[in-house]
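Entry for the shared binder. Reason: the reviewer on the internal report wants the predicted structure included alongside the sequence.
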Amino acid sequence: MKLPPPRRWLAPLLGLLVLALLRPLRVTSEDMLPSLRPGDWVLWLPYPPWRAPQQGDVVLLSDPGDPERLVLRRLVAPSLSSLVVTAPGLEVQGQAWRWREMHRGPDGVLYSEQDGWLVQRADRPFSEPPRALSAPEGQWLVLADKRDGPPDSRQWGGVDPETFKGRVWLRMGPSDPWRGALTLGQGDGPWLPPSKLEPPPTGPSSASP
């Protein structure tokens, strides 16, 4: 019996292997709002030898304050780099990250960060002074997407990659104006201004008959 060319079955085989290795996790906290909401499911996978952690990755890691607890956080600043947490933006290695306000609502203000994901802050005047952090050698600085409240490197300092269980590869959950039912990777952007939540104009057309 003649077998099909390897390229015709190798890709599906690798795809099935990756799906078999992906591990499900149900999101139970609001720490990563608005990217991940309570009730969402994520599929995560340990980092393979050929893929190192990268800025923007959402990782599952052991809480440095409670190693028995697992949390989701976003990788922001790698080993030996500097991070300045301003309001509302960030500076990494002296370079300001791209951000813009997208929407104001009862849950706070949504900002696009690096045109790739959203972060949430409380709707109040920015009064806190900038905070400068530095990543120790071999460690990462991580932040929660919900920037008010959840602990992250502002309290923990640098985080050892040995505590990373893996990277989020897929999110599944109800869609909303900012994200689809499935998200592959770390975010849903980029988004086009103005806010998608603004309703379209209504009423009679102003065009002349």
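Summary line for the report: The first strand starts at residue 23 and ends at 26.
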